[in-house]
Structure formats: C-alpha cells, structure tokens
Amino acid sequence: MATTVDRKGKAPAAPRPGGRSARPRKDVSGSRRLAAFLLSPTLLVLGLVVGYPVIAGFRESLFTRGQTLDADGFVVEGERFVGLDNYTAIFSGDAAGTFWNAFGNTTFFTVTTVTLETVIGVTMALIMQWAFRGRGLVRASVLVPWAIPTAISGLLWRWIFQADGAFNAMIRQQVLWTADGFESKLAVIIAEVWKTSPFIGLLVLAGLQMIPRDVYEAARVDGAGAVQQFWRITLPLVKPALLVAVLFRMLDVLRMFDLPAVLIGVNKRSVETLTMISWFEANNLRYGSAAAYATILFVYIAVISYLFVKLLGADIIGDARQVTKGKKIRKAGKTGKTGRASA
Amino acid sequence: MRRTPLAGMFAGLALALTACGGGDGGSAATEEDAAGALTGRGPITLATGKDRSGNMQKMVDAWNQAHPNEQARIIELPDEPNDQRQQMIQNATTKSDAYTILNLDVVWTAEFAANRWVVELPRGGQGVDTAPLLPATVTTGEYRGKLYSMPLTSDSGLLFYRTDLLEKAGVAEPPTTWQEMWAACDKVKALPEGKNVDCYLTEVGKTEGLTVTTAEAINSAGGTIVGPDGKPTLSTPQAKAGLDFLVNAVKDGRMPKAALTLDGEGGRRHFQAGKLLFHRQWPYQYDLANKKDGSSKVAGRFAVAPIPGPDGPGAANLGGHNYAISAFAKNKASALDFIKYMADGAQQKANSLATSQAPTVASLYSDPDMTKKYPFLPTLKTAIEKAKSRPAAVKYGDVTAAIQGAVYDAVSGKTDTAAALTDLQGKLGRLTTQ
C-alpha cells in the first residue's frame, strides 16, 4: 500500500518541470514507460506475495467443506461454493455474539494501548533526549521489552499475574488476573504497553534528534517556556515520525494474537480478538469461515489505516523523506509546518 | 523486529491457502485404504508428543534392532496437545506421508476417523488383539463400532488426599461421597494444622481440564453430557446435580478462588506445597509428589482413592493415548506390526515401570512388580473400569469450547446452573446435529 502512495505522488510531479514544449513531453512519456518497465518485476513480486494471498483468502472464504457427515459417519469430502454464507453466518446466530465481542475487544485494545503507548513513548523519548551520563545504557535497556519475543513476554507476564504471582504479592491482594474477566483485559493492556512503548519511544527519539538545537535557542530568546516549547516546537516537528509510529502500532495491535493467547489463554471471551476467532475456526477445520474472519479483519485494518492517513496526514514514505528535506528548510529559520506545506 | 503490517493476516490467509491446495485430488489413496489392505513394508515414523522419559526411544531402538529393514523413527511434536493435533491435521490435509503412526489423545479418535485421516485397524488374526485390554480403554479407540486406534496408555482421575491431616482429624477412611469429603474437610479445618489448607481442588480454569471436570461431575451424578444417540442430555436432574456440586464448591469456598486460574500443573504446585487436602488429579502426580528432593512437601504423606460421587464412588474421566495409522502413510503393514509390538504386555509393563504411565493391559494391574512400584494400581484399575470418556464428537473442538464456556460462566458465578445447562444444551444440540 505504501509503495503505491509513493508512486502516485511521484508520477504527477515528474512532467511539471518540462511541461513547456512538445519534445520534453515525449521524453517524459518515454521515461514513464521505462519506469513502468523497470518497476514491473517489483510489481510482479508484490502481486505474488501480497495480492495473491489476499485474493486466494477471499476466494477461500466463499467455500465450505467437511462440515457434514454421511450415513456411515464419515465427513463428506470436497468443497462447496456457498457464496457469502460464511459472512452472513458471522453476523447472525451464535457467531454474532462472538464476533461483536471480539470486534469490541480488538477495538478496545487498540484505542487503550495505543493511547497509553503514545503518551509513555513520547515521555520516554523526551527523557532519553536529555544529555546525561549513561544515556546509551538507558536507550539500550529501554529496547529490552521490545526485543523479547511476544510469546515469551506473554509467559513472563503470566507468571507475574498468576494467583500467587509477583503482582498480587506487590498489591497485597488476590486478584485473579488470568480468569476470564475485566482484570484479564487490564493484564493484557499492561503487558502490551510494557512491551511496545519503547517502539514509539525510539521512533520519536529519532524524530526528536532531527530537530536542530537552534530552534529551541531562538524560542528561549523569544521567552517561550518549556510547555510552550513542547506544544509549539517539539510536537509539530516530531509529528511525522510520531504518526508513523502510531500507525504501525495500530496495525500491529489490530491483529494482536499471541500476547492474549499466551497470557490469558484462547477461548476466553474477555480477551478474544478477531485473529483469535479466525484461528479457532481454522483450528476446527472451518477454513472458509476462518478466511471470512481474516477478510473482515483485513478490511477493518485497511479502513482504519486509510482514515488515519487521510485525517491525520500520516504519509509513511513521504514524511520520512520530508524530515530530511525539512532539515534544510528549517536551517533557514522556518518551522516544519512550512516545510510540510511546500510538499 | 519490525514486522510488516498485515503480515499476521497474510500468514492466516496463506494457511488457509495451503489447506485449500490439499483439498483437491488424491482421493484415490483414501479409497484404497477403505478396502482395509494394510500393505507395504519399510521404514516408518511415529509422530508423538514429547518423550520425556526417553523410554519410548528405548523401545523403538529395540524394535529397530529386531527389524533392520523396517526402521522406526520418532518425530517429536510440540508439547501442547492442541499443537500436536494441529500438526497431525496439517499433515493429513496435505496428504503427506511424513507421519506413519499417530499417537492420538483419546478424544481425537472420532475426528480423525470421521475425516478418514486414519485407517481402520483389523481385529483378531493378523490384526491387533484387544482382548487382553481393559474394555473401557478399547472404547476410546472406536468410532461407530469400528477400531481406529490401539490404546497404548490409559489414565483416569484419582482423588489425592493427605493421610497425615485426615489421621489427625480422626478420619480413618478416604471419603467415598461428596458429603463425606466436606465433612472431613470441616474436621481438618478445625485443627491448627488445617487453618491454611484448602479443602478441595479440581481443574475449573477455562481449559480442556474444565471439560474433564464437568464430565466427571455429571457422570458421577449419573448423568451424561451427550447420550448414546449422540444428542446432548443436559436437561436432566443428574446433570444439574453434577454441575451444582462444582458451582457450590467454589461458592462455599471449598475450592480456593484461585482455582479459576489454575491449570493441572498449577494445581500440582498447590498440592505439593502442602496447601491442599483433597485433590482430583491424574496419576502422574503420584511420582512427582512423592519426590524426596525437596520439591514436594507432602512426600509420603498422601494416598489416592477413587473420586467421590453423590452417594458412592464417582465416575472418573478416561484419558490416555492411542496409536493410529495415518491413511496417507506408506508401509502400513510395518506400522501394524509396530503397533502390535508396542501394545504388547511386556512392552507396556516396561514402559509403565519407566514412566508411571498407566497400561491398558488388564493383567498388569495385578502384576507384582507393578503393584510394588505403584501401590495405587488396584485403585486405578477400579477407577478406569468405572471411568467414562468425554463426549466422542467429530467436532470435538467446538464441543469442548462450548462446554468450557457455559460451565466456566456458572462456576465463576456469572450465570446460574440452570441457565448454563440450558445454554449448553442448545449449543451442543446445534453442534451434534450437523
């Protein structure tokens, strides 16, 4: 998806400089053909590894098989085309409750964890930005939770959250974190935020280091306080990096599976996400229905990221380029906002 | 470290794809197997869970020495039973011949047989001999009256109890009814040593263990989850009595609240820490709780009895593992011989002595070598003879998930017993009619 945005952004920009006479225009269309030719292997590979699974998954979601028994008790083989039955089944009957519960959980986790991670991550980045002794050590240690495989950190937190675990010993109360209740949601949020805040922290830190010191000096000379500097300088200038980090986190958490599965367990309503019901369906050999869930999740993720990109202007590739370009513009004493506007 | 967004979904879709690719063609192999001809000799493999004791390898080595042209190789699958099932299913849906013999959990037989992933085993003559086995274990290998897997090990729930505490409280015999068990608890609770000891624990966490617990409670009360005609039978007073026993045990504090989060191993830790009076557990705990290396505080201070019921010993759950032959494997004749070799009484005895797994051959339960090492074997035999299987369903994964969901809500106090049973009756009805 990201690459198409980039290519579309480039294509109209190319003819502009030489748009005066007929000859350069011909050159342009020639170079466009060349570009298309040179890019075609990439597109082909992308189509194979990205496009094909999506389409094949969608196709699978229109079929069902192995769901009926014959008179001797054997499963009737062969697949049967059922159209959109797998989809309508999701929104009606027994499955509807499960689906909306999982949909609600997925959305709830996305909103809560990404919000918390953003606040904590930005705070982490600001702290790491300060020059102090042992900064390298702090940066490296912040990375540790992110470096641990999710399944392992899920196990780790399960020990912490078990009935006689460290967390209950600390709060001197017996809370059943891994039972199937609201506490389990909290446990997942705590573990997830612990694990992924460093990711936002490090991406924001990279953004922070792009901001030249003299901008702050100028602000200080003009009498801006620390809070003002944060809202008027730091946040706008770090926004491109922050938005990319938040978008990545959102995509990640929307398809969260292993953390709740390991920490709380599968088949627990309070933490069941869309990927988990898809997994459950596949596990019970209903591949068509599993593919339908996966397709719905795919569409949900696509819609969310589209809205995010449109509403907040998080242009993943474009902004990354902008940050480096913006540096030169900013050196001339302008803010990032004008740099962005020129793009 | 940085994963591509959507990668998880694609993985899911790709999984669906692989499965789809395996769906077409290759039905010829199944037809040939349906004829019942187990032919072909040569190397074979055994797909199984972890061989913790290393004894399985020893038995395979002995086989390999005697059969140089039909070498067997163990393929170790992941530790989690569900992951093992998943890998075996993947192997079957791609019609791969990588696994010759499958080490199946007893509850998987129906699913594997109905999908024609395993072949029917011939009985008598050149086939396997089920006559020396405990009859209850043989039923776990059957689907619609035909044998699809050979029971190799058995298992049944037992009541572990603290002999030292009961003795102090003046209770001479282990309880045989639920009432007697609660009465014994109250007596122990009155002792100074009994202050911090929980009364009773059985698995009620939302895992497969809860299905086992539910089946035991309902079977003990004389009910069934799914009747002989394959229809759910939960609207009976027996089913209600069984579930009420579990619900009230949690409500009255007989079971610690933490039970809702404990799995089998969590329960074992609790018992071995000396904080539990009565514990429904599988026999594997016997050896571990008797270890004198300091890992168990109750070594030598406990014994086992059949699990209690409402008015006499209850019906425990039947566990264990069976060997089946994959429908897509080569060298099925060798596989059949290998199964006969592994299921043989002498091999089972050696295996039981090395691993404490319960055998399926009936005579071993009174074998002097065996009873010397495992004094609880006669108790276990009684338990297995009375034991009942979990519902045999082709859609076992859905059935067990439905049972866990409804019963967990009742046990954790979210719904009452009657509502949980009505809900479950409806869900299982839909799952078993399809």
Description:
- The complex is a heterodimer of chains A (343) and B (434).
- Chain A has 16 helices and two strands.
- Chain A has 343 residues and is mostly helical.
- In chain A, helix 9 (182-208) packs across helix 11 (226-254).
- Chain A starts with a helix and ends with a helix.
- Helices cover 44% and strands 13% of the residues of chain B.
- Mean pLDDT of chain B is 88; it is low at 1-35.
- Chain B has helices at 7-21, 27-34, 55-66, 81-93, 109-114, 135-139, 163-168, 178-189, 208-220, 237-251, 264-272, 285-289, 332-343, 345-355, 368-373, 377-386, 396-411, 417-433, and strands spanning 44-48, 72-76, 101-105, 142-143, 146-147, 150-156, 158-162, 198-201, 276-281, 302-305, 318-325, 358-359.
- Chain B has 434 residues and is of the alpha/beta class.
- Chain B is built from 18 helices and twelve strands.
- In chain B, helix 9 crosses helix 10 (237-251), helix 9 (208-220) crosses helix 17 (396-411) and helix 17 (396-411) runs antiparallel to helix 18.
- Classes of the chains: A mainly alpha (343), B alpha/beta (434).
- The interface between A and B is large, with 57 and 49 residues.
- Chain B: Belongs to the bacterial solute-binding protein 1 family.
- Chain B: It holds the Pfam family SBP_bac_8.
- Chain B: Residues 1-21 form the signal peptide.
- Chain B: It comes from Actinomadura viridis.
Strand residue content of chain A? under 5%
Using only CA atoms, what is the Rg of chain B? 23 Å
Instruction: List the secondary-structure elements of chain B in sequence, H or E.
Output: HHEHEHEHHEEEEHHEHHHEHEEHHEHHHH
How many structural domains does the protein architecture of chain A include?
2
CATH architecture of one domain in chain B: 3-Layer(aba) Sandwich
CATH topology assignment of one domain in chain B: D-Maltodextrin-Binding Protein, domain 2
Spatial arrangement of strands, main beta sheet of chain A: 1-2
Which shape of chain B, going by the Cα principal axes? globular
- Tally of helical segments of chain A: 16
The portion of residues forming beta strands of chain B comes to 5-15%
Amino- and carboxy-terminal Cα gap of chain A: 20 Å
- Extended strand count of chain A: 2
Helix content of chain B: 40-55%
Give the helix/strand class of chain B.
alpha/beta
Largest sheet of chain A: 2 strands, antiparallel
Which CATH class of the largest domain in chain A is shown?
A: Mainly Alpha
| Classification by helices and strands of chain A | mainly alpha
CATH fold title of the largest domain in chain A: MetI-like fold
Taken in chain order, the helices and strands of chain A follow as HHEEHHHHHHHHHHHHHH
Low-confidence stretches of chain B: 1-35
